């Protein structure tokens, strides 16, 4: 292991109001990715950065089959090619998988090195993709120590977690605090149709107490909260279609309320959904597959729902009798 650098001189992690998720970039199975989409994805990247959406979330497990690592490689290529506004603010966040064969702190450091190679630059934010707390709690200590090594050695600007609940988060915080390593971010599945991490687990309060920024993943509930999918409208194929067919009969209160607010404010449902996440103090990272979608999502910036509208949406969410299934790795 190399010696720790002076972390007080490390470049700071700067996070924008909204980020962009790139799970779909390289994923054929769930998201229908095809390499012919790459020029459009590059245009998405460019539009996001120029519009101030400078945080990109990826993962070293992203990309199906032979396309594994594709999301990181595309991001690396796009970031290297980009010149324009906000270039210096680009923040590439990857998630390192807690694979069962990653058992040592060295394995985490090597994984981050491999991500940095695909990204063609150092990783800005390295996150542990999921907690092993629900099935192999003994594995997690070494993975966290490896993450902390990356920060201490100045290889990343910050470290983060994903799918951790408050109890496990406090345990990690205590472990890393002993080394003076801060947790910059926590990612949870959070949207109007997935309020569990906040309403049931209360992660917001713990994050505020521990100085951790909360990132909302799948903030559009995989596209359902854009209003473009319905029982009388075409559904995507595969697992998403199956899931949407199951959810749609029970989520009308949210779709109706989103629609009414969107109309009164001359916004789209996606913009209102993302703005709700921002009002809740989170950084939403919607996935985007086209410039039109990226442009639409950018329209969630520069205005704010009032407290009455947030309350209406909260109540509508409470009236839905179907919600998004929680990530199996989410701990308490
Ligand atoms: N930490 C974790 O375990 C974890 C888990 C899941 C996701 N994530 C991260 O969170 C990111 C976002 O979540 P997500 O991609 O799962 O779902 P999402 O952001 O809720 O939905 C994204 C999808 O919705 C559609 N869409 C996006 N913007 C739209 C717009 N303005 N109008 C119409 N349709 C629009 C697109 O799909 P279609 O065009 O096909 O409808 C897009 O791929 C991921 O990319 C990933 O980086 C993290």
Spatial strand arrangement across the major sheet: 1-2-3-4-5-6-7-8
CATH class: Alpha Beta
State the secondary-structure class: alpha/beta
Helix fraction, binned, reads 40-55%
List the helices and strands and how they pair.
Elements: E1 19-21, H1 28-31, H2 38-50, E2 55-57, H3 70-81, E3 91-96, H4 105-119, E4 125-128, H5 137-152, E5 158-162, H6 166-177, E6 185-189, H7 196-199, H8 203-210, E7 213-217, H9 238-247, H10 252-265, H11 269-279, E8 282-284, H12 291-298, H13 307-319
Parallel strand pairs: 1-2, 2-3, 3-4, 4-5, 5-6, 6-7, 7-8
Bound molecules: NADP nicotinamide-adenine-dinucleotide phosphate.
Could you list some keywords that capture this structure?
TIM Barrel; 8-stranded parallel beta sheet; 42% helix; 10% strand; single chain; binds NADP nicotinamide-adenine-dinucleotide phosphate; alpha/beta; 332 residues; globular
Short summary:
The chain has helices at 28-31, 38-50, 70-81, 105-119, 137-152, 166-177, 196-199, 203-210, 238-247, 252-265, 269-279, 291-298, 307-319; strands at residues 19-21, 55-57, 91-96, 125-128, 158-162, 185-189, 213-217, 282-284.
Task: Kindly describe this structure.
The chain has 13 helices and eight strands. The protein is α/β, with parallel strands linked by helices and 332 residues long. It has a single domain (14-223, 270-304), classed as NADP-dependent oxidoreductase domain (TIM Barrel). An eight-stranded parallel sheet has the order 1-2-3-4-5-6-7-8. Strand 3 (91-96), helix 4 and strand 4 form a beta-alpha-beta unit. Helix 2 runs parallel beside helix 12 (291-298), helix 10 crosses helix 11 (269-279) and helix 10 (252-265) packs antiparallel against helix 13. It starts with 18 loop residues before the first strand and ends in a 13-residue tail after the last helix. The mean pLDDT is 96. Bound molecules: NADP nicotinamide-adenine-dinucleotide phosphate. NADP nicotinamide-adenine-dinucleotide phosphate binds at residues 21-24, 57, 95, 162-163, 187, 217-223, 226, 228, 236, 270, 285-289, 293, 296-297, 327.
């Amino acid at each position: 292991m190399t010696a720790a650098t002076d972390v007080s001189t490390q470049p700071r992690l700067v996070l924008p109001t909204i980020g962009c998720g790139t799970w779909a970039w390289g994923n054929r199975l769930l998201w229908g990715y095809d390499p012919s989409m790459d020029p459009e994805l590059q245009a998405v990247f460019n539009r996001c950065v120029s519009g101030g959406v400078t945080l990109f979330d990826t993962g070293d497990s992203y990309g199906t089959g032979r396309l594994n690592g594709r999301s990181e490689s595309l991001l690396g290529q796009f970031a290297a090619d980009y010149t324009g506004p906000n270039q210096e603010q680009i923040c590439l966040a990857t998630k390192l998988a807690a694979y069962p064969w990653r058992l040592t702190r060295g394995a985490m450091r090597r994984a981050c090195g491999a991500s940095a190679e695909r990204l063609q630059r150092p990783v800005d934010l390295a996150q542990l993709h999921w907690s092993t707390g629900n099935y192999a709690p003994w594995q997690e200590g070494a993975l966290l120590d490896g993450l902390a090594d990356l920060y201490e050695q100045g290889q990343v600007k910050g470290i983060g977690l994903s799918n951790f609940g408050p109890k496990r988060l406090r345990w990690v915080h205590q472990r890393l605090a002993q080394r003076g390593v801060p947790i910059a971010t926590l990612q949870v599945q959070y949207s109007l149709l997935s309020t569990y991490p906040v309403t049931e687990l209360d992660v917001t309060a713990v994050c505020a107490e521990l100085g951790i920024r909360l990132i909302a993943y799948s903030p559009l509930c995989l596209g359902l909260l854009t209003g473009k999918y319905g029982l009388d409208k075409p559904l995507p194929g595969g697992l998403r279609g199956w899931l949407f067919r199951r959810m749609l009969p029970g989520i009308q209160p949210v779709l109706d309320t989103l629609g009414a607010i969107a109309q009164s404010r001359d916004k789209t449902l996606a913009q209102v959904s993302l703005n709700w996440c921002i009002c809740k103090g989170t950084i939403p990272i919607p996935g985007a597959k086209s410039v039109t979608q990226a442009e639409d999502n950018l329209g969630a910036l520069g205005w704010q729902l009032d407290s009455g509208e947030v309350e209406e949406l909260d109540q509508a969410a409470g009236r839905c009798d179907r919600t998004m299934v929680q990530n199996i790795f989410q701990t308490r």
